[in-house]
Every structure is written in C-alpha cells, then in structure tokens.
Amino acid sequence: MVSRSYSNLLELASGEAPAPSFGRMGRRIPRIMTVAGIMANLDDDDPESVCSDPSSVQRDRIIIVANQLPIRAQRKTENGKGWSFSWDENSLLLQLKDGLGDDETDVIYVGCLKEEIHQSEQDEVSQTLLDSYKCVPTFLPPDLFTRYYHGFCKQQLWPLFHYMLPLSPDLGGRFNRLLWQAYVSVNKIFADRIMEVINPEDDFVWVHDYHLMVLPTFLRKRFNRVKLGFFLHSPFPSSEIYKTLPIREELLRALLNSDLIGFHTFDYARHFLSCCSRMLGLSYQSKRGYIGLEYYGRTVSIKILPVGIHMGQLQSVLSLPETEEKVAELIKQFGEQDRIMLLGVDDMDIFKGISLKLLAMEQLLTQHPELQGKVVLVQIANPARGRGKDVKEVQAETYSIVKRINEAFGKPGYEPIVLIDEPLKFYERIAYYVVAECCLVTAVRDGMNLIPYEYIISRQGNERLDKVLGLGPSTPKKSMLVVSEFIGCSPSLSGAIRVNPWNIDAVADAMDCALVMDESEKQLRHEKHYRYVSTHHVGYWARSFLQDLERTCKDHVQRRSWGIGFGLSFRVVSLDPNFRKLAMEHIVSAFKRTKTRAILLDYDGTLMPQTSIDKTPSSKTIEILNSLCRDENNMVFIVSARSRDKLAEWFSLCENLGIAAEHGCFMRLKRDAKWETCVPVVDCSWKQIAEPVMKLYTETTDGSTIEDRETSLVWCYEDADPDFGSCQAKELLDHLESVLANEPVTVKSGQNIVEVKPQGVSKGLVAKRLLSTMQERDMTPNFVLCIGDDRSDEDMFEVITSSIDGPSIAPSAEVFACTVGRKPSKAKYYLDDAVEIVRLMQGLASVSDQTLHL
C-alpha cells in the first residue's frame, strides 16, 4: 500500500492546502506523487507561493536514503505526549550534508527512526520532521522490522558479506525465504516514501548500504531515467563466497539498476565485478580512468573511494573544555605513572577481532617482561549493533580473556587491560585518542572503519591540548597505527603497520615495533597520514561521488529507455534514439516492394546460437536459405570466420548460396563456382611463430583450444574460467603483437577469442565485393539486409551504411543493418537472439516462395 503524500499530511494537520514552507524547497519539487503512477502538477500555482527565493531554482536536490535517519527522537517528558527531535551529530549522513555545503545543495533524508512511533502519531511526526529537518520517516511495523533488520540484514547478509558461511545453524543464519520477503517488502516501502517527494527529472537519489540493495529496482521501475547512486559501506565478498547466496542474481541485478555503484576499496569493487562476470556474463571496461559495466545499453559506473571523517566536527570536539578536562584526567591516570597507553575502539561483535587483540597483548607481555607494569591496553567496547547468540559469545570470551590477563600480569595499582564496555560520550573517546601512543584496529573483516582517521586527527590536536600535554608550539606531532589488512581504510594508510589479525605473534611484534620505533619515524608517518585524512574528508568523498553520478547521468534525456522483465529481474533498456528493434512487418513490407536484394548473414551467434554445442545448420535453416536463394531477385551470402571446407560441407545442399569464409579471405558466389580470394594469397609461415605461443597459453589455461584455419589461427577460451581466460587473452594479445610485429598479419580479440589473420581481411571487404559484383551485373540492389552479432560484423555494417548514397546501392534503397542483442553498434536495428533472426528469415523466405508460385 502506497503511503500518503506530504501534501496530504500537511492537509491533515492544518485543514488547508500545502503550507508555504513546503514551497521554500524551491521548484525542484514541482510534482508530488499522491498515488503510484499518478502525478499531481503544481505548476499552475502562484509562482510566489511555490518559490519565494529565485536563487533556489538553481540548487541541486539530493534525496539521501538509508536505513536510519540522522535524527535522535525522544519522548517529551510533560504528559508523556509528543516527541522532540534533534540531529544525530555522529551520523555519517548528516556529516555528508555538511560536507556538501548548505548553500549549494538541498538535501532530503528518507529512512527509519530508531524509536518506534505509534500509528496515531505518525502523521504529526512526519510533518514535523519534514518541516524542521527535511526528513521523510519510513514507518515499519515492529514484526516486519525485526524480520528485515535483525533477521535478513544482520543474520544473513551481514555475516556473508563478512565472509561467514552458514555451514551450520550456529554459524550465521541459514537462508530463510520469509526473511528475504520481509527485506523486499521493506525496500518497497522505502520506494513508496521516495515516490512522495521525488522530482524524477531533476533530483539525484543516493542510497546507502546493504539494507536497501533491491531499492534501485523499485525506483528504476517507477522512473526509467531516475538519477540513482548506491554506496556499499560494508565489504563485498569474493565470488566464491557470494555465489552461495540463493538470491545472488536478484541482488546483482538490483544493484545494476543504479547508475553509479560505490565501494571503499578496489578489492570490494573487484569482487563485485567478478560476480557480475561469472553470474551474469557481464564484462567491464576502463575508459579514461572510469570503470563501467554495459548493462542493456546503460553504462553502470563503478566508483572506488573510501569515505572520510568530518574534520569540522572533530576539531570542534577537540576544542571543547570537557575534552581538555578528560585529557588532563587521563594524563594523571597514565602519564604520571609513566605508563604507555595502547588503545582499541571496537563494536562488540564477532568481526572486530577484540579477543585476538587481547591475546596479542598477552603475548607481548609474555615475550617482553620489561613492559609489564608499563604498557596498558585500553579497550573501548561499543555496544553491538546486532543481537544474538554470537554477540553474547564474544562478550563472554572478551571478559574471560581480560580477567585471565589481568590476574596473570596485574599488580597493585596496575591492570594491563582496561575494558570499558559502557557507552562513552564522543569527547571522552576523543580524549583517549589524544593520549594513546598507539591505536590498534585488528578487525578480521570490516567495511571502512574510521577509528584510525579519528585517531590521527586527534593526535594532531590543537594549541590548547598541546599545553595540557606539555608540548611546545613547534613540537612535531606523532602517532602510530597497527591496522588489520582486512579493513577498508588499510590501503589508504600506507604508514601504518599492517598485520594479519589471525597471526597473534605478528600482532604482538607489531605492537612492540610501534613502541620502540624512532620518534622521527613516528612523526613522518603521522605527517603523511594527516595530509591524507585532512584532505580526503567526508565532504571530498560526497562531492566526488555526486560529481561522478552527475557525469554518469548526463545523457539520460538523450536516450530511449524502456523496462523489461518482471519482479526483481526488471531492468531498463537504454538505447540511442535511432537504434530500434527490427520489426517483422516493416522489413517484410520493404522486401515485397523491392526487386533486387542483397542479404548478408553471419553464422555463429546469428543463424546459430553461440551456446549450441553442435554448430551444424538445422534442416529448417537449410530450407529457409534455399527458399531465399531460389528467388532470382535475391543474392544471399553467409559471411563467417569459419574455414571454407567446413562451410562448404555444412551448406552443400544450398546450390545458389554465396559463401565468404575466414572473414572473407575466400569467397564463392554459388556452390559450383570456384573459390576466389579477396586479398592476395599470403605466405603463412608466420604460423610457425604464432602457434607455439598459442600452445603455451592453451597448456596454462584449462578449457582453451586452438583452431588452425587455412589463413588464420584462433585461440578460443569460451570454456575457460571467465576471469582467468580474459586475463590470459590480454596477455596473449600483447605477446602475439610483439612476436608478429614484422609479419603481414593483424592480431585481434573477439568474443572469447584471440585471432591472427592476414592484414586487410575483413567482412567489410565481402560487403564491398558483393555490392560491386551486383552493380557490374546491372543488379544494383534496392534492398540490403545485413545481420551479425560481434565486432567483425561491424565492418559490414559500416560499409553498407556508408554506401547508401553511393553508386553501389540504388537511390532510396531499403537498407537494414541489424546486430544481435541490444548493445552499442554501427547498425541501426537489433534483434534479441538467433531465434528471432531465424523467425525473420522464415518470414522473408515465405514471401519469396509466394513470388515463385505466382
């Protein structure tokens, strides 16, 4: 059921038409969705009531969608009725808005509140949040929220994305379709809320994190041209892990309904691209630094940029008197006793590696007895965001290890581990950062983790904190980080000591290294980190993402778009306005009107599906070709990369069929005609150089084969691992180009192949030869049909379309260049697959048969 629009909410509360305050958001909201699919147009209103500030017309508007709104809600104390709201200053979504700058962009938030709001209060709360905070709350029934968040998100998606497989019921939740249905339902509710405020032609929508991974499909289904970005804040697992998910393809296709997909690291992006390749057969390309996936004519861009921290907020907290007081207190607690503080700040969950860190501390104290009584590990354990058996187990293990270590190494007035498991205020946490000599982040798997960034900025401090710490104004700052290799921020912190958290000895050694490192080295590492963190802040991240989103969406309005597929298989086909499907009635009508016709057909992937193992033409295909060839008005040609012997064998029953073999190197006009060569016969001694190279790659690439043709060599990796095969193909291409540089051949890559063939040979040459032959015989065609499916066929399309105004094609001729599948092409028409092509050819053959019987 679609939620009521905000115009309705305001009317409910005031009994009037929408209040002027709604108009202050500018003419960026000229339309409001009241019922799914129906637009209420406000353009006839008094302009002053809609937009009182002319400058607001130029402002961009972004709808930021996340599981939780950046809002704190608290029940009012008087009478226990009503709610009071405030911004959650620690929310990344709010920091993102501050980073963009209030003067440049309007931001609307869509998400849930942490507190449950009774149904009778929801309308009033919605109006308050919209008017005062530009927030659109999504209200979910408690049982649905539990199944969606604590069920599917936290017990199924979150463990899997952190590399935990549900090998047994105790290790993460087994897939539960009821929880999946709840997840989809919640994403649909979010989509309905967005519909109420979106202006789809102008607004940008930015969806955050794994809670809303199918939301792009619902939005794209409503508005084919919606400008939509998605950022994943968690890791994305390798394809070996991800493919265990029963709804793996549904999630991938949903994400691909975004225009831009963002990841923290290249590893996460690489895993996603690998999944798209292995499960959907999609390949990606990098153009001028931008990575893109072609998906049904749309380019889905991939963004790799780790999020940053809010510098202004952190610096303001560092300047608070409370922070200074807490720093002074900690110095008295640790500094005056000459104790060195190591610091860990983690959520209490199974992936943060708290117990591994504690075991490394135990190892450090065992191996270096001189550090006993001098080094203290302060572990701040934030409450877990999820709940369940695993959280309780982590807590129990943590308490047990802390107790054991403190009993073994503690003494009066000294505890080697100080565990703080109660919530700390932000300034208190910052104070610990300021005092800590080293920060330890040993998560076994984590998305980004901004703790190291906060630590670096805190150690930079300010003048007032320097005085508290007893530092002079020119004293260089220093900091040390020991970070896990498995967290998102690790690649950007090149000065940190990176560790495998599972290797307890290595972590203990890293802690010792951090303690004994030269002061000058610590200062240089800190300086390097500070430069990066202070410039790559949350504002930089947000602006960079939105700039890329705008760039990706800039040609939306210039393309034809329509939706195909049902449910979560829905996707949008987006094509150039001049690129359209070849209609049967259109071509049959043209076929009937014309008298001299040229028909050029590719074979593999066109008349024969690429997936077929037996490539021999069917009796039906032979019958269709013979029907066309019996009509004296038709000149029909098969243009293939296959050898002339194979083609001659397959089409031996087609007396009048023309054949061009090996991309047109050999050609004959009919079965009894002699084979002609389109280019001078070349010496094939180059094969002695190329074949050993290809054999080397065949031996090292399981599933690859070599096809030795008369004038060419082809390395095929169709049955190899897609990622490895593609990688090997690139290497082979470079290798062959190098060793054959002085030979009269060209090396080209195609669909799952690398081919070496004589220079000057192309299917375009066949098209030219056929058209000129027909012209010489006074059979200048006024109907030309050319169909093919891969790059080699593009040469034919180019020749035919460029010949339209030339002498080889009759004036006002009907010309149809048609590719297979919706993809960028020089052809102006497309058909979806070989089945449609055979059906089309059957229709034309029927017309020829009727003509013969007249």
TrEMBL record:
<keyword id="KW-0808">Transferase</keyword>
<dbReference type="GO" id="GO:0005992">
    <property type="term" value="P:trehalose biosynthetic process"/>
</dbReference>
<dbReference type="Pfam" id="PF00982">
    <property type="entry name" value="Glyco_transf_20"/>
</dbReference>
<dbReference type="InterPro" id="IPR006379">
    <property type="entry name" value="HAD-SF_hydro_IIB"/>
</dbReference>
<keyword id="KW-0328">Glycosyltransferase</keyword>
<comment type="similarity">
    <text>In the C-terminal section; belongs to the trehalose phosphatase family.</text>
</comment>
<keyword id="KW-0597">Phosphoprotein</keyword>
<dbReference type="Pfam" id="PF02358">
    <property type="entry name" value="Trehalose_PPase"/>
</dbReference>
<dbReference type="InterPro" id="IPR036412">
    <property type="entry name" value="HAD-like_sf"/>
</dbReference>
<dbReference type="GO" id="GO:0003825">
    <property type="term" value="F:alpha,alpha-trehalose-phosphate synthase (UDP-forming) activity"/>
</dbReference>
<comment type="similarity">
    <text>In the N-terminal section; belongs to the glycosyltransferase 20 family.</text>
</comment>
<dbReference type="GO" id="GO:0004805">
    <property type="term" value="F:trehalose-phosphatase activity"/>
</dbReference>
<dbReference type="GO" id="GO:0005829">
    <property type="term" value="C:cytosol"/>
</dbReference>
<dbReference type="InterPro" id="IPR003337">
    <property type="entry name" value="Trehalose_PPase"/>
</dbReference>
<dbReference type="InterPro" id="IPR001830">
    <property type="entry name" value="Glyco_trans_20"/>
</dbReference>
<dbReference type="InterPro" id="IPR023214">
    <property type="entry name" value="HAD_sf"/>
</dbReference>
<protein>
    <recommendedName>
        <fullName>alpha,alpha-trehalose-phosphate synthase (UDP-forming)</fullName>
        <ecNumber>2.4.1.15</ecNumber>
    </recommendedName>
</protein>
